[in-house]
Design a protein that fits this description.
mainly beta; three-stranded antiparallel sheet; five-stranded antiparallel sheet
């Protein structure tokens, strides 16, 4: 019902060699994934309305049984933040803090991120597309 249409895909890298021995890497659908495999998640979004959309924010959970790969989140013209509490609060990595069982506070590890948020720095023009991407490893 809104103007922003969001679609997510999960892919893995597939490496092949051609007849000349040149290596190529392409993304293919993540049909079968085993523990230790890295999955690349791409979130595409499109403004399907006839006017620019301000304050576009895309939130995506890190899928269950997956651990976010540190530094892998990208999104052109976006500000990226993370959550460690299921998406209730978001902050830059350096501001995320966890308490250990003994009560001491420490910096949150990337593997503890539960959600990622991309906020567009500018309005998304009518009919325009955008994308965001991150990697996660199956536990």
């Amino acid at each position: 019902t809104g103007c922003i249409l969001v679609q997510s895909v999960a892919e893995i890298e597939q490496t092949s060699m051609d007849a000349k021995g040149m290596k190529t890497v392409k993304l293919v659908p993540a049909v079968t994934v085993v523990p230790g495999d890295t999955v690349i998640y791409t979130v595409r979004f499109r403004n399907r309305c006839d006017k620019a959309a301000d304050n576009v924010s895309v939130d995506n959970p890190v899928p269950e049984h997956m651990q976010y790969v540190a530094g892998s989140a990208i999104g052109p013209a976006t500000e990226i933040s993370f959550s460690i509490d299921g998406g209730y609060n978001f902050a830059k990595p350096e501001a995320l803090r966890k308490k250990d069982s003994d009560g001491t506070e420490r910096a949150a590890r990337a593997s503890e991120y539960t959600n990622i948020r991309w906020v567009m720095r500018h309005a998304l023009a009518a009919g325009a597309d955008g994308f965001a991407r991150f990697r996660a490893v199956l536990e």
